[in-house]
Amino acid sequence: MSEEESDEPAYKEETHKSNEERKKEIQDPYFKEFYGDIKTDKRGTQTPHGYRETLLMLEEWMEENDIDSWQDLTRYHMTELKNYLEEDKGLYGSSADRHLDRLRLFFKSDEAIKEAGVYKEDCIDKINGFSNTNQQLYQKVTGEDVIFVTKDEYREMLEACNSTREELIIRTLWETGMRRSELAETTLQKVKIDEKKIEVDNKKNDKTRTIPFSPDLLPILREWMEYGGRDQYSKAEDSPYLIVTQHSEQVQPAYINKIVRRVADRADVSESYATDAMDRKLWKPTAHHFRNAYATYRVAESEGAGAMNLKKLAELMGHSNTEQTARYVGLLEDDLEEANEKYRPKMKDKARNLAREL
């Protein structure tokens, strides 16, 4: 495959934060006022440092996503923000919930409502919904809000890949269910080709999990690692990382998502699933939707071998509990039909006997 670099943006190598960056100030005036109230304890016993961290994180995320104001945020943004906390920040369970709880308090704050004339009820409801999902495994039953890449979409995207690197990224996401941040941080040493396994470091608990992959991933891995695909990039020689570019020894998680979106557009499988407050379309698939697909198809009973145990799936996905894993599981149409046939009440009656005779 040819390796095209002309449209690829340069990505700066990640460096340690400077003291100046650590002292970054909150910019939004409403955030500043809210944080000031927290510091002066007007809202009860709170931890100011935690709120400052949350508000700075939100400003950073909004800037990356070209969102001008918190007043433009919608319930769909809350879903994307939660994915960002998990995928890019490595925060799960209570760690992510603490950030969302602080935002919920901001959205409920009297000052924000009174001065901005905006009440973010949809955002509050969405945050509340995350908590309910954790407790009830709600999405495992309903599949609500779970968007995943289908097998047909995956095949179309493979056909649309224009380079070895694009195909490697698409196949690896499908085969391993890795987070985009984990793929960006995967080193050559962690890829065990002969064993058909990839070792993934979990930033949350400093543990390493091992993800097996099928023989389908082997050819592209060998082409990339052993037959010169990776060596075509100028930064490859000095980089320990699996994915490199002409401009960087290590790509950022956003780059992984950029490749997914680029290939999806080329394959004509992109679809808008919602709009934000400014009527801008939100598109799928993203790298996160590959992770949802990894969970969905392994739980689907229609695959023939029966559903994978959620506890085992949680280990493969790097989750600390099955409640977290259940939120990634969507429903396949075939599963609904099979489940209906399996669990519907079976009754012998005259109508059934008559149908048989006919």
Automatic annotation (TrEMBL):
One GO term (biological process): DNA recombination
Q: Where is this region: Disordered?
A: 1-25
CDD domains under this entry?
DNA_BRE_C
**InterPro entries for the chain:** DNA_brk_join_enz, Integrase-like_cat_sf, Integrase_catalytic, Integrase_recombinase_N, Tyrosine_recombinase_XerCD
Give the Tyr recombinase domain ranges. Answer: 144-341
Basic and acidic residues: bias regions: 9-25
Q: Which UniProt keywords apply?
A: DNA recombination, DNA-binding
Query: GO molecular function, one example?
Result: DNA binding
UniProt-recorded name of the protein: Tyr recombinase domain-containing protein
- What is the species listed in this Swiss-Prot or TrEMBL entry? Halorubrum ezzemoulense
